[in-house]
Amino acid sequence: MNRTDALDMVRESISSVIPGADVAALAPDDAFREALDMDSLDFLSFVEVLSERSGIRIEDEDTPRLTTLSGSADFLVARTR
Amino acid sequence: MAEFTMPSLGADMDEGTLVEWLVGPGDLVRRGDPVAVVETAKSTIEVECFDTGTMTKLLVEPGTTVPVGTPLALIGPAGERRPAPHAPEKGEPSEPVEPRTPPEPPSPPPEPAPVPASPAARPPGHVDAGPLVRHLAEQSDVDLGTLHGSGPGGRVTRTDVEHAAAARTGAGPPRARVTPLARRLAAELGVDPATVRGTGRQSAVHASDVRRAAPGPSAPAPPASAAPGPPSAARPAEDRAAAMRRAIAGLMSRANRDIPHYHLSTTVDMAAATDWLHEHNRRSPIGERLLPAALLLKAAALAAREVPELNGFWADDHFTAGEGVHLGVAVSLRGGGLVAPALRHADTLALPRLMNALKDLVTRARTGRLRGSEVSGATITVTDLGDQGVETVFGVIHPPQVALVGFGRVTDRPCAVDGLLGVRPVVTATLSADHRATDGAVGSRYLTAVARLLQKPEHL
């Protein structure tokens, strides 16, 4: 997966969990969980969706890497390489 | 003849707006069936019926706001009145999917079903059709939502309905009945109601069936306009936010005025719970993973069963114990505000079920689709503010309940462990309790039970 696709996938996954979230306004290094007021249930859904779409099994231990758009995209790129 | 009245869906509710009927005159209803959608200051709620019988007359039209206690409909004994028979009934094979027919032995109706004051059993604006056409559609079991109106401006005409009814009798299996709410939800969620397996009477498709059939969060995101906060059927969003603020203000003022709170706090070692949780999650597919909240809620519910003095209501100068542990869960809404719907019988739910119930409850709280029994039935409430980053909650009780349990963030702290200093994950559990109902000794027993239960996560 290239980085652009990965970023898109992260954005789409967030949007599907938080309908109406202004994902376009997120900067690559914003902590989106705080920015979008996501609670742990929202975040779990996000991980679930991202895992489903990318085909990557995401462990609890991986989740600290999923705090920003760019961090999440890097994670996806690294795992699918 | 029983009356179905505007229920009180919480101590803070004085009036409600009937948004939608989920049943029509002549329908058999059972105690516990959702029969109407009511909007309160705080949420939109599916209201269940408290009687079993036949809906004989709808007294209030959708869109009307009435005080709590106002009769909304009349319910006669089952079989007392039947709806007029309709064409598709005849010659139909005895399939389980048979629309709009009560499961009674077929016998000629003693009298035709009463016609409601307004046959508009759909929310206004749902489909453009006149009252007579709606009534005809009801009688012929034709769903207006599926018709393309041939009248001016796409208005559905009598002929449209007759054609549809004729077409259906002539060919094809009878369609399963779909409640109006389910149909609207299906449209919102992009689900074809025809493909949904109904769990209602005669396989009627209820909103919950549609939700189950929805592809879940992996579905394409709905357009932003369909999104945030509970859908407001009768009020614009700003009024709604203000109304919710007023409702919370009223309830919390009452709590602080009437309830002599006492507050207790304890620090709970979460090492065992956290380890168990990680191990569980490592072994489980993502969809079955648990959050710490599930363990905390289960422990809170089991402790409430152990200390029933805290599980119930204070009213008329005495305490009444709750029948079962229905754990109110404080859910903050995205547009601001708060609801605390109940996880019913939370003490009996195995963790995976509790987790699913929690996900479902939070989703519905945020999309405004709670049940009446969930909104009003909590016997004790838990607020978990761990996600917000705080360590300690000093809660305000939701009257008429007598206790509120608070959890903060699970966080690593230096602790004395076996005579040495160690770093352990801990959580601060607090209890706000009504001093009229209990004393500190009872509250202490409760928090001690919570702490003890969390040391054996495998038994939760």
From TrEMBL, chain A:
InterPro entries: ACP-like_sf (IPR036736), PP-bd_ACP (IPR009081)
Highest taxon in the source lineage: Bacteria
Domain named Carrier: residues: 1-80
One of the Pfam families matching this protein, by short name: PP-binding
Protein known as: Phosphopantetheine-binding protein
UniProtKB/TrEMBL annotation, chain B:
GO MF, one example: acetyltransferase activity
PROSITE patterns from the UniProt entry: BIOTINYL_LIPOYL, LIPOYL, PSBD
PANTHER family assigned: DIHYDROLIPOAMIDE ACETYLTRANSFERASE COMPONENT OF PYRUVATE DEHYDROGENASE COMPLEX, LIPOAMIDE ACYLTRANSFERASE COMPONENT OF BRANCHED-CHAIN ALPHA-KETO ACID DEHYDROGENASE COMPLEX, MITOCHONDRIAL
Protein name as catalogued: Dihydrolipoamide acetyltransferase component of pyruvate dehydrogenase complex
Domain Lipoyl-binding: 1-76
Biased composition (Pro residues): 99-117, 217-233
CDD domains: lipoyl_domain
One CC-aspect GO term: cytoplasm
Superkingdom in the source lineage: Bacteria
Peripheral subunit-binding (PSBD) domain boundaries: 128-165, 177-214
InterPro entries referenced in this protein's UniProt entry, alphabetically: 2-oxoA_DH_lipoyl-BS, 2-oxoacid_DH_actylTfrase, 2-oxoacid_DH_E2_comp, Biotin_lipoyl, CAT-like_dom_sf, E3-bd_dom_sf, PSBD, Single_hybrid_motif
EC number: 2.3.1.-
TM region(s), chain numbering: none
